[in-house]
Design goal:
Strand content: 25-35%
Number of helices: 9
Largest sheet: 7 strands, antiparallel
Order of helices and strands: EEHEEEHEEEHEHEEHEHEEEHEHH
Structural class: alpha/beta
CATH topology of the largest domain: Rossmann fold
Helix content: 25-40%
CATH superfamily of the largest domain: Nucleotide-binding domain of ferredoxin-NADP reductase (FNR) module
Strand order of the largest sheet: 6-1-2-5-4-3-7
Length: 285
């Protein structure tokens, strides 16, 4: 059991938990993740380690409430427990002094971007961060990333905050303005990562992407997280989660992400129904 130390709402349906997990906190590196089970009968879900405090023995997990399990987790409060947390898993981000590093995050992908940007800054890189969201109230961790970035640019699809447009617009504007970028990192919705990698490939910028395919055990045994990179099959949990973005078969990965969409919707609707019944019963008492 892992105890939740603090709970903080970051935005619409997004919660940050600081959780007691001393062994993970001690060994974790930027880019790695954990597999979480909320209850003993729950499904396993991968969550990036958004931050860690080895001295306190805690890690930070950021959860967006979208499906049955993440909704269940988002209802937990400080003092509650998570049944088990396994990790750290995956290969850490390769961090060195590249020069100018562009860190691009979209949506909930901004959460795993933070420790990477922090690591790149600590390696004495000039860090430019570009954050994208559909609208202002879906933007997270802006202040956190500002502390580890030399420059930070925000874009929103609807123009409600920052510059109106997409992260690709901001990247092209940077390069057209004379900014030389030595390395890029992109994390976010698959379509955003696809089109960002297409642009950075066009611009000749080496780019890594952190992939988020379907994942169950996190050890390479189930094969659920297989992706095609450079024409070869890879497992995101043990070979990644980060790969050369210019070699990823984005279309096949996006198709696989929809494999269980109907089952996921049914599970979420059933969970919502059960929650409403429970609330009605409590009110009746």
């Amino acid at each position: 059991m892992n105890t939740i130390c603090t709970r903080e709402e970051l935005g619409r349906n997004v919660v940050r938990y600081v959780v007691d997990a001393p062994l993970v906190a001690t060994h974790r590196k930027p880019g790695q993740f954990v597999i979480v089970r909320v209850t003993d009968h729950g499904e396993r879900i991968p969550l990036t380690i958004a931050d860690a405090n080895p001295e306190m023995g805690t890690i930070s997990l950021i959860v967006q409430s979208v499906g049955k399990t993440t909704r269940e987790m988002a209802m937990l409060k400080s003092g509650d427990t998570i049944h088990d947390i396994v990790g750290p898993l995956g290969r850490p981000t390769h961090i060195e002094q590249f020069g100018c590093v562009l860190c691009v995050g979209g949506g909930i992908g901004i959460a795993p971007l933070y420790p990477i940007a922090k690591g790149m800054k600590e390696a004495h890189n000039h860090v430019i961060t570009v954050l994208g969201a559909r609208t202002h109230d879906l933007l997270i961790l802006e202040d956190d990333l500002r502390t580890v970035s030399d420059d930070l640019i925000v874009t929103t699809d609807d123009g409600s905050y920052g510059a109106k447009g997409l992260v690709t617009d901001a990247i092209r504007s940077l390069v057209n303005g004379g900014t030389h970028i030595d390395q890029a990192v992109v994390i976010g919705p698959p379509l955003m990562m696809k089109f960002t990698s297409l642009l950075t490939n066009e611009l000749g910028i080496p780019t890594i992407a952190s992939l988020n395919p379907i994942m169950i055990d996190g050890t390479g045994m189930c094969g659920g997280c297989r992706v095609t990179v450079g024409g070869e099959m890879k497992f995101a949990c043990v070979d990644g989660p980060e790969f050369d973005a210019h070699k990823v078969d984005w279309d096949s990965m996006i198709r696989r992400l929809g494999t269980y969409r109907t089952a996921e919707q049914v599970a979420a609707e059933r969970y919502n129904h059960e929650c409403r019944i429970g609330l009605d019963a409590a009110e009746a008492r």
